[in-house]
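Re-run with default settings, no changes from the original entry. Doing this only to confirm the output is reproducible before filing.
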Amino acid sequence: QFSSDSESINVEADQSEITQNTDYLLTGNVKLKSSAYILSADDVEISSANKTTTAKGNVQFQDAIYLITGETLVANKQNGEIEAVIDEAQYQDLTSNANGSAKAITKIPDILTLTDATYSFCPINQNDWQIRATKIKANHAKNRGIADHATIVFKGYPIFYFPKYSWVLEGRGSGFLPPDLDSYTE
């Protein structure tokens, strides 16, 4: 559950300490809750000097759109926006149920950038159809997903390669349909 106070962060942890640099070190079942996100991990270090948060071990990050899990997260706040980078991550879009994995995920409020990633609308762990790409950008403000060097994969077999592939994240698009491939046999 998100916090109801937009200016505060609720903190839960087994142990906490303040270091010499006035950094906060939270260990054991750490949960940080704000009105915009929830972060849980084994260990979290919050630096007030450079406004970064580093989480390690069983990291889970959730906002209104995505649930992302991984082993490490580094987040910083710039110009009022939080940018989070999660390594070796799994993700799920909570609005469309799209899911996949990535070597690295960069998350800012409306944009998710996936590096060396997969993307699928199939149920989790049953990804018969998926897109594999070197870079995928899901821009919810523009309602577009764009994949660079994408391969459409069915049951582990590559079907078709696209240097750049674009799709509508949710709902209907412009009405223009992308080209498709068909075959005919007698």
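The chain has a mean pLDDT of 86. The CA atoms of residues 148 and 186 lie 36 Å apart.
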